[in-house]
Amino acid sequence: MNKEKWLPLAIVFLGTMILIGSIQIANQLVTIPRGSSNVNVDTNNISYSLDRIANKLVQSQENEETEKASMYFNDAAIYLGFTPDEFKILIEEKNLNVPYIKLDNRYIFYKVSLDEWAKNINQQEIKLKNN
């Protein structure tokens, strides 16, 4: 698996760990009487929180891997943030080259191709004809 897929998960994990650590320290500071040097940290609670977060990250990764690799017209339109009518106009616009396969009057879109197309299209200024 490439580093680009793991980087967002690692950043989220690190940020979550910092947040949980800060909250745990703040909670312990509130319960310590002033002038006391005896600091008791509930390591079981911290360990439980870390395990819970690790499990959520694993579940998130599994969900991402099992996410549909292909989708039909309406799902693709929603995925890209368009209404079906807007998406139909984009598909009919030849210079946009929306990646799809048409089988028996059904459009099939691959998520990876749509992501790449959207990234490329965001880097261009394109004028659509008004229909």
Helix and strand arrangement:
Layout: H1 3-31, H2 43-66, E1 70-72, H3 73-80, H4 84-92, E2 101-103, E3 106-110, H5 111-122
Antiparallel strand pairs: 1-3, 2-3
Characterise the protein shown here:
This protein is mainly alpha-helical and 131 residues long. It has two domains: 3-31 and 42-66, no CATH class; 70-122, Orthogonal Bundle (Multidrug-efflux Transporter Regulator, Chain: A, Domain 2). Helix content is 63%, strand content 8%. The protein contains five helices and three strands; from the N terminus they run ααβααββα. Strands 1-3-2 form a three-stranded antiparallel β-sheet. Strand 2 (101-103) and strand 3 form a beta hairpin. The longest helix is centred in the N-terminal third of the chain and has 29 residues, at 3-31. The radius of gyration is 24 Å and the shape is elongated.
